[in-house]
Amino acid sequence: MPGSKVAGxxxxxxxxxAVACGVCCVLPFALPATVLASTGTLLAWFVSMHLWxxxxxxxxxxxxxxxxxxxxxxxxxxxxxxxxxxxAGSTALLAVAVLWxxxxxxxxxxxxx
Length: 113
Hints:
By secondary structure, this protein is mostly helical.
C-alpha cells in the first residue's frame, strides 16, 4: 500500500530528526557533567602515579640539562636565551612536583575559607 510506505518513511524521518534534535539539545547539558565526573577519576589515577612519574620527570630533566651542557661544550657556544628560560621554568615546575607532598597540606589549609 502506497500510503503505509509514505507513513513509514515519514515516521522514520521524523524520529531521526527528533533523536538528532534531542542530542543537540541534551548533549551541551550532559557532556560537561560527564567530563567532570570522569576528570575526578583521571585525577585520582594520576595521583597514584605521582612517585614514578616524578622520577621519570627527574630523569628526563637531568637528561635535558646534560644535553644542553654537552651541546654547549661541543659547539663552544652559549645556549639560546629561550632555551635557558624554558629550562628555568621546567626547573621550577619540577621543584614543585618534587616538593608537592610537603606543599599540598599547607596549601589546602590556606585555600580553605
